[in-house]
Write a structure and sequence with these properties.
The protein is built from 6 helices and no strands. The protein is an all-alpha fold and 192 residues long.
């Protein structure tokens, strides 16, 4: 009992001495605020290892999500390529393939192949619109807090790049389709 009282007294006495040394009435209010701020910074848990783990883990999570999404896309493309390769291996000659192309079902097959490129253009357009809107939102927030201006500019630039990519690919596919149409008056480049 006496030992525990001595231990408690040994912990309390330094605190009492510290309080007795700093009399808030003697310290001007601005220095008292500075001392409180310095103590808060000194004992802030964000200055420890947790302050490093959180941003690193956030960055790692974003990288993992991007990597997994990319792997999923690669697996889908590989499965489609394998299916198309096996389908083309079924034909013994070019004549069998030509007969297949004349059938009604083959037109659906070819339309599905060509629609994949249209889906990638739609994805580019959608990504561009989303990133531009996010950039505009950051610009709106920059009026309240100036820290959002640079991310807003960067997001608008990336979104404009997506939209420019969509416009170029749309224009190229449109001109390619006009070249391949039989009644357009121009011959395909392979026959010139």
């Amino acid at each position: 009992m006496m030992a525990s009282a001595i231990l408690i007294w040994a912990r309390v006495v330094p605190l009492l001495l510290q309080v007795a040394q700093t009399n808030p009435g003697d310290v001007p209010p601005d220095q008292l605020g500075q001392q409180i701020a310095l103590e808060a910074v000194r004992h802030n848990p964000a200055n420890g290892p947790a302050g490093l783990i959180v941003p690193i883990s956030l960055f790692a999570m974003i990288l993992a999500i991007v990597w997994l999404k990319r792997r999923q896309q690669q697996a889908q493309l590989q499965a489609k390529a394998e299916f198309h390769r096996q389908l083309l291996d079924k034909f013994a000659s070019g004549r069998d393939f030509a007969e297949f192309l004349e059938r009604k079902g083959s037109q659906r097959f070819l339309d599905e192949l060509w629609s994949q490129s249209a889906q990638s253009k739609e994805n580019t357009l959608r990504n561009g619109i989303v990133v531009v809107m996010l950039g505009l939102a950051f610009f709106g927030l920059s009026w309240m807090k100036k820290d959002f201006f640079i991310p807003g500019v960067l997001l608008l630039a990336v979104g404009a790049g997506f939209l420019l990519s969509f416009a170029i690919s749309y224009r190229m596919s449109k001109s390619r389709n006009q070249e391949l149409e039989p009644g357009s008056g121009s011959m395909p480049a392979s026959q010139n």
